[in-house]
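TA notes, week 10

Several of you asked for a full example with nothing omitted. So below is the full record: structure tokens for the whole chain, then the designed sequence directly under it. When grading your own attempts, check the secondary structure regions first.
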């Protein structure tokens, strides 16, 4: 049985750990509010961009843009794997990495990583140095532009056959799930928001908006922006999902530390009581020996 001194040291260590997890919980709570605010600020632009793309896709017949054409069938598939830069968030990063491994099983894949954890996972898998960017950059939109430019150049030049994004989706504060999205090539029968086909509402909108010089020209200029903003939006959502996962993980760690402290305190009190009882028995035994002697 551990001594009272050992138990006291363990309790002190757990209390120090509990203070750290409490501080990290408060930091995560503050940061997730900022991350959610950034998401809300970007949402009107995303909605408008999706609506315009739906109108344009409904208005045009053919578009001479690489994103609308199949890629090089002999080239590997380009996969953007997006995680956080740091850990201490439960299974948040490992879930995304596992989703990427499951998706890439049996496929010829070229990895593009956003986030230090994704970069390390790809290197551990033996894929060598691949194009990589950090998630917590001073300007996420600049990083999104760099990623979009790199994958676009590789797709246009036939080095990859398509572009797929694997990132986290924030379902709620208690749930974050990996999401796999095929971004490029864009099939004409599938609208950017994921709804399939041209509906009657789309047909009724044709001609409602005039585009100059032509819908085809506007769509060809808008598609690169669509890719940039999709990556940027995924970075914002990954940020928010990471802090939500970290908040939950630190809350659980704080509670578990409290339970361990309570258990060790009971053990320490029992050990102290046993030591006191032993000393009393020794004193009583010594006194009886003196009397009988």
């Amino acid at each position: 049985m551990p001594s009272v001194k050992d138990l006291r040291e363990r309790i002190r260590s757990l209390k120090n750990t509990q203070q750290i997890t409490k501080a990290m919980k408060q930091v995560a709570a503050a940061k997730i509010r900022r991350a959610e605010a950034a998401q809300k600020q970007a949402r009107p632009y995303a909605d408008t961009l999706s609506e315009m793309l739906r109108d344009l896709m409904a208005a045009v017949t053919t578009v001479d843009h690489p994103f609308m054409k199949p890629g090089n069938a002999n080239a590997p598939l380009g996969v953007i794997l997006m995680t956080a830069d740091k850990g201490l968030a439960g299974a948040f990063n490992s879930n995304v990495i596992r989703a990427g491994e499951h998706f890439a099983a049996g496929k010829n894949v070229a990895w593009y990583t956003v986030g230090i954890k994704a970069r390390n996972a790809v290197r551990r898998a033996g894929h060598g140095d691949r194009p990589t960017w950090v998630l917590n950059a001073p300007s996420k939109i600049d990083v999104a532009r760099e990623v979009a430019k790199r994958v676009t150049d590789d797709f246009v030049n036939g080095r990859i056959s398509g572009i797929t994004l694997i990132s986290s989706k924030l379902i709620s504060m208690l749930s974050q799930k990996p999401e796999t999205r095929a971004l490029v090539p864009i099939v004409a029968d599938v609208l950017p928001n994921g709804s399939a086909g041209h509906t009657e509402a789309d047909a009724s909108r044709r001609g409602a908006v005039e585009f100059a010089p032509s819908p085809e020209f506007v769509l060809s200029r808008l598609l690169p922006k669509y890719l940039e903003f999709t990556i940027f939006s995924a970075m914002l959502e990954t940020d928010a999902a990471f802090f939500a996962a970290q908040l939950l993980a630190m809350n659980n760690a704080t509670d578990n530390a409290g339970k361990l402290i309570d258990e060790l305190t009971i053990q320490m009190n029992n050990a102290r009581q046993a030591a006191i009882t032993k000393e009393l028995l020794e004193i009583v035994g010594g006194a009886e020996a003196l009397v009988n002697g």
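The radius of gyration is 29 Å. Use that as a sanity check on your answer.
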